[in-house]
Amino acid sequence: MPDTPSTQRAFRLGVCGPVGTGKSSIIALLCRELAGELALAVVTNDIYTDEDARFLRAAGVLAPDRIRAVETGACPHTAIRDDITANVLAIEDLEDDFSPLDAVLVESGGDNLTATFSPALVDAQIFVLDVAGGGDVARKGGPGITGADLLVVNKTDLGPHVGVDVEQMVADAAASRNGRPVVALSRHDPDSVRALCGWVRLTLARFRTELFVASDPGPMAPHSHGFTVHTHTHAHPHASVVDPEYRSGAA
Ligand SMILES: Nc1nc2c(ncn2[C@@H]2O[C@H](COP(=O)(O)OP(=O)(O)OP(=O)(O)O)[C@@H](O)[C@H]2O)c(=O)[nH]1
Ligand SMILES: [Mg+2]
């Protein structure tokens, strides 16, 4: 533990989205672009492996001990939405070990279109779609697509190869988001990388003001795992906010 803990904890930024859409690659890219100006750490979530963490350590974008894996033992959305304990502990350990941190990036293991982070776990969240997943996915909606703080339409370089009209896909995505931002990203397109980094800087700056509150994109759709039915009901209304005191550690 540091002698004098910082009065404000690190900004917690979640990255979620379906399997293989490029979440780990985006985290690697953000670390590569921003580690020179921000003190960063990463938590990854996976069911039984720490593969994402190993990928990020191998990418050499951050000191290896700043990257930690949570093995959820169940669907990753459970650990980012329903019981966030393991993730919160991993983040707090990183904050203690590397204080002061500017931001902790949290990757959800790849999951379906409705997986979103609890606003009690992250301050803001990026939902990632992949052009190669099909142009119509952006129209399908779901809380991540419509309500995440940022929607990334990733791998735009693949559009011509998979027969997807990227401009139309981005327009469809934007139309479903009620003005919330969309970034069309390819790691091969420096302008798009700048746009993503610009959003992260802006959101971090907003977090550091007293005006920032985490918003909830909405819960998982009801679903089942074998015999267990998850209904994910909540007593509070959605688009709810986290107590602003929480992020200063006062709660
Ligand atoms: N063409 C192209 N491929 C990309 C881009 N970004 C990522 N990829 C590739 O997409 C594949 C999946 O990337 P990951 O970053 O592992 O995706 P992920 O969402 O973390 O995957 P899971 O954690 O398994 O759900 C890899 O082969 C990446 O190299 C991009 O901008 N363009
Ligand atoms: Mg990954």
UniProtKB/TrEMBL annotation:
<dbReference type="InterPro" id="IPR004400">
    <property type="entry name" value="UreG"/>
</dbReference>
<keyword id="KW-0143">Chaperone</keyword>
<protein>
    <recommendedName>
        <fullName>Urease accessory protein UreG</fullName>
    </recommendedName>
</protein>
<dbReference type="InterPro" id="IPR003495">
    <property type="entry name" value="CobW/HypB/UreG_nucleotide-bd"/>
</dbReference>
<dbReference type="GO" id="GO:0005737">
    <property type="term" value="C:cytoplasm"/>
</dbReference>
<dbReference type="InterPro" id="IPR027417">
    <property type="entry name" value="P-loop_NTPase"/>
</dbReference>
<keyword id="KW-0996">Nickel insertion</keyword>
<feature type="binding site">
    <location>
        <begin position="17"/>
        <end position="24"/>
    </location>
    <ligand>
        <name>GTP</name>
    </ligand>
</feature>
<comment type="subunit">
    <text>Homodimer. UreD, UreF and UreG form a complex that acts as a GTP-hydrolysis-dependent molecular chaperone, activating the urease apoprotein by helping to assemble the nickel containing metallocenter of UreC. The UreE protein probably delivers the nickel.</text>
</comment>
<keyword id="KW-0342">GTP-binding</keyword>
<dbReference type="GO" id="GO:0043419">
    <property type="term" value="P:urea catabolic process"/>
</dbReference>
<feature type="domain" description="CobW/HypB/UreG nucleotide-binding">
    <location>
        <begin position="14"/>
        <end position="183"/>
    </location>
</feature>
<keyword id="KW-0547">Nucleotide-binding</keyword>
<comment type="similarity">
    <text>Belongs to the SIMIBI class G3E GTPase family. UreG subfamily.</text>
</comment>
<dbReference type="Pfam" id="PF02492">
    <property type="entry name" value="cobW"/>
</dbReference>
<keyword id="KW-0963">Cytoplasm</keyword>
<comment type="function">
    <text>Facilitates the functional incorporation of the urease nickel metallocenter. This process requires GTP hydrolysis, probably effectuated by UreG.</text>
</comment>
<dbReference type="GO" id="GO:0003924">
    <property type="term" value="F:GTPase activity"/>
</dbReference>
<dbReference type="GO" id="GO:0016151">
    <property type="term" value="F:nickel cation binding"/>
</dbReference>
<dbReference type="GO" id="GO:0005525">
    <property type="term" value="F:GTP binding"/>
</dbReference>
